[in-house]
Amino acid sequence: MNVWSGERRRIYMQEVGTRDGFQSEGTFVETNEKIALIDALSRTGVAKIEVTAFVSPKAIPALSDAEAVLRAIERRPGVVYTALVPNVRGAERAIEARADELNLVMSATESHNLSNLRMIREQSFDGLKQVAALAREAGLAVNISLSCAFGCPMEGDVPDATVLEWTQRFIEEAGARGVTLCDTTGMAYPRQVAALTAQCLARWPQTEFTLHFHNTRGMGLANVLAAIDAGADRFDASLGGIGGCPYAPGVSGNVCSEEIVHALELMGYDTGVDLAALIAASKRLPALIGHDTPSQIVKAGQRLDLHPLPADFAAIRERAAQRGSISI
Ligand code: COA
Ligand code: ZN
Q: How far is the CA of 50 from the centre of ligand 2 (A)?
């Protein structure tokens, strides 16, 4: 039950487990299993699903079946099916496979951009401008994910000015409809998140901003809450809390979808997500990826998932009553 009265503030949940999650798994999840999982996710009420990535299959073998997956999934009205693309080749493949949106990727820092995308940032930007033009011609929306927006594992702090400059160029020169500020390696902290989020929302009120946090240092939920307080309403999260960029040292999973939904609903926000369905989907993961996930909700259950009394409870109570000479 929601303890707050009045209209609940809407928060849009965007599932990235089948892209950010699967890309870093050693096990190849079978194509039909990916499709079934995405179809289940479509029915949970998430606003967007990052289905896959149209990257080099040599670089990310786990997602080499991108076309087959995107073509076969059910398209549920109200859900946006997006795909990550790093270059023109990827864009052509994603358009052909009927993505709703192209999620372009570039890093805020030169070191991570070179490690991840093998180009300097200016080269990436030139290429991504072409990708954005292709997407527009095909009538698709463009989102840009700016990696390492809150810190780089190789360069350290990233000045807000750098993030704002690239954000501006993507919005004004490349025509991006949405921008995702990515905390690729869990370096963000709440005060920093609030400040950068507030600046972006104030400067570009028409742009759809998403916050993408990894829980590497346990600050994921705190960062989500700080961003909400600063006005954000869209969050990437991954089922089971799996995920991570293979080109970012020390990386670990995204904030966990079911943990974030569980917390936000208790706080009176409207995520639009059927939490039980999300948890059921998450429970399918260990069989697919061959190991447990970091999800605390899968381990502990929801807050009011109660446990049976101990088998000898009546006897315990009886003994306690005798000690206290009270009748119960
Ligand atoms: N889809 C399919 N194949 C692609 C591709 C794409 N989008 N982009 C490049 N390739 C292939 C090329 O055809 C080429 O194949 P070949 O060796 O058989 O000829 C090979 O990949 C290398 O291509 P090249 O243009 O030299 O690019 P690169 O080696 O500089 O790779 C990237 C650049 C970024 C495309 C590649 O490294 C990549 O996809 N990386 C994955 C990035 C990623 O997903 N990171 C995590 C998420 S943020
Ligand atoms: Zn990520």
A: 11
Q: Check pocket membership of 114 for ligand 1, CB cut-off 6 A.
A: no
Q: From the CB of 145, is ligand 1 less than 6 Å away?
A: no
Q: Whose CA is nearest to atom 14 of ligand 1?
A: 56
pTM: 0.94
Confirm if 172 and 135 have CB atoms less than 8 A apart: no
Q: How many angstroms separate the alpha carbon of residue 323 from the centre of ligand 2?
A: 57
Q: CA-CA distances (angstroms) from residue 125 to 38, 108, 117, 169, 230?
A: 30, 11, 11, 9, 28
CA separation for the pair 29, 22 (Å, rounded): 8
Compute, in angstroms, the gap from residue 327 CA to the centroid of ligand 2: 59
Query: Three-class SS of residue 238?
Result: strand
The domain limits of the chain are 12-323
Predicted confidence pLDDT, tens digits, the chain (328 residues): 444 557 899 999 999 999 999 998 999 999 999 999 999 999 999 999 999 999 999 999 999 999 999 999 999 999 999 999 999 999 999 999 999 999 999 999 999 999 999 999 999 999 999 999 999 999 999 999 999 999 999 999 999 999 999 999 999 999 999 999 999 999 999 999 999 999 999 999 999 999 999 999 999 999 999 999 999 999 999 999 998 877 777 778 999 999 999 999 999 999 999 999 999 999 999 999 999 999 999 999 999 999 999 999 999 999 999 998 666 6
CATH of 12-323, one of 3.20.20.70, 3.40.50.1580, 2.40.170.20, 3.30.470.20: 3.20.20.70
For tokens 């996930």, what's the residue? 293
